[in-house]
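USER: Please consider what follows.
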Amino acid sequence: MDQQVLEFLRQKNWAVFGASANERKFGHKIYKLLLRYGHEVYAVNPKETEIAGAPCYSSLADLPVVPDVVDFVVPPAVALTALPACKALGIKRVWLQPGVNTPEVVALARSLDLEVIDYTCVMVESNQLAILKNKPAFAVIQSATVETEAQLTSLAASEIEYVWLQPEASTHELIEHAVSLGLLLVHHVDLSEALQDLP
C-alpha cells in the first residue's frame, strides 16, 4: 500500500467535513466506517446537529480537539472555503475524496503546506488495509458479467462482508450496487499486486 495512505490511516483522530445523518450519503458511510476501524471521529456539518447519536459540529474551529486528519466529503466550492481553517488551526493532513479533488482544491491545499491525499477513497483504502492486515473472509469478483450483480446481492445476504472487485469488475454500476448493499468494498485495485505490497 501507498506509504502516505498508511501514515494517514494510522492516525487516531479524524474529522469528516461533510458528514451526513442520511445513511445513503457517503458523508455518513465514511463517518461510520472510520468509527468501525477504531478511529475517534468527529462530524462537521453546519446543517446537522447529531449524526449516529453523536454531536455534529458546525465548523472545524468548534471541534473539541485538533484532528490528525480531515476527510473532505463536500462540493469543491465548500472545500475551498474550509481549507484555510485547517492551516489556521494547525491541522496537517487532509484527505480529499473523489469529487472534491479538483485541481483548484488540490492546489489550494498544497499551497497551504498541508499533507494531501487526493487520488483515492478513504473507504477503499481502509477496507483494503483491513483485508490485508486482519484477513477476514472476503469474496473476489474477477470480472463484470450479467451474473455479477446477483452474486453481490447473494453475498450481502451471507456472512461475508468484504468484497474485492478486481479492476476488470470495477464498473460504476457494480460499485454503486455493492455500496448500496452495505458491502465493505475494495475496487480498482489488483489483489495480486496488493498482496505483493503488504503493509
Q: What stands out?
A: The domain at 3-121 is CATH 3.40.50.720 (Rossmann fold).
